[in-house]
Amino acid sequence: EFWGNFPSWTIIAIVVAAIMILLYFTLPVFCKASLVQLIARMRNGQKVKAIDGVSYGFLHFLPLFEYRVLIRSFSLIGIFTEASFVIRNLGTGAFGMLALPFILMFFIGLLLLLLFTYSEYYIIIDGKGLMKAMGASVKLVIRHWQHTLLMFILMLLITLRIFLNILLVLLIPSLIIVSTALLAAVALAKVGFAVGVILGFIALYFAGYLGAVLEVFSSAVWVFTFLRLTEEGEVSAREVRDKGPRWVSGGSEESTEGEA
To answer: 175: closest CA among 195, 191, 205?
Structure first.
């Protein structure tokens, strides 16, 4: 009834909702491209300013957005979303029949996410295309498999961040409701509501600040790891790295040192 009586507010609400949805899907990609470029350039000793990140974000937004859309289908969050959709619309019985495929999808998605760990950095830093970046990431992960432990530690950190954000998202409305009800019971309702909103905004600020710190930290670690691994390059079996004796045909040794 309210929206029918005030159609102008309905239009404004639709426009604001559309803008929020657009920012939800695009702003993280833009910020990721800007952050990775700034970290990589600062690590290499280049003088950059924070405002330069805007240019870097626009330059690498489209290929990175394309990559995010592609991997969303087999990401862990995507798999959990699909499982929730099945439970909500088809019931737990149907989910029980599809449990094995979902488990397989979970492990396959986890493996693919590990193999494509460096795809974003190939896209942002090296400017590679989508498929070339994914292929180069798979090759780099396989060649440096000993860094798998580091990957799992970073994934654990990211998972901790996700659960912390979920906890804070659930805590903020509870904090507003409880504080509003408590203060409204002993004082004026308007005062209680105002205090509850203020406390909610404070909690939201700290939640965003903590999430930003974790995002910058994890991105810096990944960028530093990517740059160090790619700087090493791939060593061919024919390449001679030292000047010690090497085996030749017949089982004898041949010295690579020059004769005195």
So the answer is: 195
The span from the CA of 191 to the CA of 161, in Å, is 34
- 103-126: b or e for each residue (b if 16 or more CB lie within 10 Å)? eebeeebeeebbbbbbbbbbbbbe
Residue 11 backbone dihedrals phi, psi, to 5 degrees:
-65, -40
Express each pLDDT in 158-171 by its tens digit: 767 666 766 766 66
Please state, in angstroms and rounded to a whole number, the distance separating the CA atoms of residues 94 and 81: 15
Helices 76-97 and 99-115, axial angle in degrees (round to 10): 160
Q: How far apart are CA 185 and CA 189, in angstroms?
A: 8
The string of pLDDT tens digits covering residues 13-69 is 788 889 988 988 899 899 999 999 999 999 988 888 888 888 999 999 999 999 988
